[in-house]
Amino acid sequence: MPFLMGSPLANADSLDDASGDDAFGRMLVAMQSRLRGFLRKLGPCDVDDLAQETIARAWRSRASFDASRGKPVSWLLRIALRVYLDQRGSSQPTQGLIPDPREKSPGPFETAAARDRIQELLGKLSDREREVLLKFHRNGESISAIAKAMALPEGTVKSHLHRARARLWDLDVGADEREDR
To answer: What domain range is 135 assigned to?
Structure first.
């Protein structure tokens, strides 16, 4: 293991001459301070946990490292970024994605009342705003498809969609706030 001569990992950015698991493990240990610094810069996180998971993933994936494609430190920091994003994504609240079976679903009268209220609110929008809103949310059409169908620029479609949402919010939530006073 020529690149380990002198100091333990004199050059942590080079794995070309390293062979075997022992050299790879020492390389990972030598890059820990850089790894931890990188993780701290990403944002609020448990650096120790993320560093440990990063090292574990790097160890499991050591056979996939190709020195001709880049430096080991770049490879390790890319793994760290993926670990950070995975952790951040899994910590997002999942409340509301799966309905709680204990919660009572609305009955037919509540459903009919909600449908009537939606129709009433939609009726207060301009024809163009209502059309854009329904095409986007009810029909699932993309902004570009709506723009083509209505012969409008995409930016105009986005503006109509934004105004329709804002107006519905004001009409619905604004009315609730006025009733609370």
So the answer is: 123-180
Return the CA Rg of the chain.
Answer: 28
Are both 157 and 78 inside the same structural domain? no
Report how far residue 16's alpha carbon sits from residue 70's, in angstroms, rounded to the nearest whole number: 10
User: What is the number of structural domains in the chain?
Assistant: 2
**Entry field: residues in the chain:** 181
Distance CA(27)–CA(10), nearest Å, equals 10
Closest-CA residue to 50 (of 24, 75, 82, 12): 82
Residue of 28, 7, 6 lying closest to 15 (CA atoms):
28
**141, 135 in Cβ contact below 8 A?**
yes
Domain holding 77: CATH number?
Answer: 1.10.1740.10
Write the single-letter amino acid at 114.
Answer: A
CA distance 151 to 69: 47
pTM of model > 0.85: no
We report the CATH number of the domain holding residue 160 as: 1.10.10.10
pLDDT tens readout for residues 123-155: 999 999 999 999 988 888 899 999 999 999 999
Q: Does residue 53 share a domain with residue 6?
A: yes
